[in-house]
């Protein structure tokens, strides 16, 4: 059974971002977040249209796209 996912939330350290899910058929949400060097905690959460937490992300892929000065 599919969850009625309307938004995705990503929390990494001090950063928290939310993005709307455009279509029920979407399989990915992409975030760009400024991250500090070092160990931290990461949490991916999916939300309903009312903002209720439905479930956590099953997997997350992280890629470095730039270098801090």
Outline the structure in words.
By secondary structure, the chain is mainly beta. The protein has no helices and 4 strands. It has strands at residues 7-12, 15-20, 42-47, 53-56. A 4-stranded antiparallel β-sheet has the order 2-1-3-4, with no helix packed on it. Strand 3 (42-47) and strand 4 form a beta hairpin. The N and C termini lie far apart (46 Å).
Tell me about the largest β-sheet.
Answer: 4 strands, antiparallel
SSE topology string: EEEE
Strand order of the largest sheet: 2-1-3-4
Low-confidence stretches: none
Number of helices: 0
Whole-Å distance between the termini?
46 Å
Question: How many whole angstroms does the radius of gyration measure?
Answer: 13 Å
Fraction of residues in β-strands: 25-35%
List keywords for this structure.
4 strands; about 0% helix; elongated; about 70 residues; single chain; mainly beta
């Amino acid at each position: 059974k599919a969850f009625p996912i309307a938004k995705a939330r990503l929390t990494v350290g001090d950063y928290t971002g939310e993005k709307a899910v455009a279509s029920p058929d979407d399989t990915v949400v992409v975030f760009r977040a400024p991250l500090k060097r070092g160990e931290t905690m990461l949490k991916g959460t999916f939300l309903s249209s009312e903002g209720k937490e439905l479930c956590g992300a099953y997997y997350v892929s992280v890629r470095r796209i730039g270098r801090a000065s």
